[in-house]
Amino acid sequence: MNASHLVQTVYYDGACPLCRSEMGLLMRRNDAGLLHFIDISEPDFDAAALGVTMAALMARLHVRQPDGRWLIGVPAVQAAYAATGHRRIAAALSQPVIAWLAVPTYEWLAAHRYRLPRWLLQAAHLHTGQCAPDGACRRH
């Protein structure tokens, strides 16, 4: 099977600092090229061409599978992490207790992502080893 048939498309809000940082981490780890990233905040992006609303795309992370199916919210996060070699995180998100906690946490973060304080955003991304306490991120 051609590798291009295995590519999943990630639709993310590039205007959101938390989203942009998280997608930057995934982009840097996308060595196998299994993900294609689309910033839905770009002015020329057309949600209607996908058969979804912009409001739906802005509400939660969306991943379109090679067969056309959509993964939305935590399942989308799980797929993106699995595709970039973060298998432990992806596996953890399928554990019942963690999934039970992850869904409302994700929903809250998605709904409040523009109002999160800068210190919280920085703390959330120090775990990646990519971002310094001042918010600056290294590229590989």
TrEMBL record:
A single Pfam family it belongs to is DCC1-like
Q: Tell me the InterPro entries matching this sequence.
A: DCC1-like, DCC1_Trx
* Domain of life of the native organism: Bacteria
Q: What's the protein name?
A: DUF393 domain-containing protein
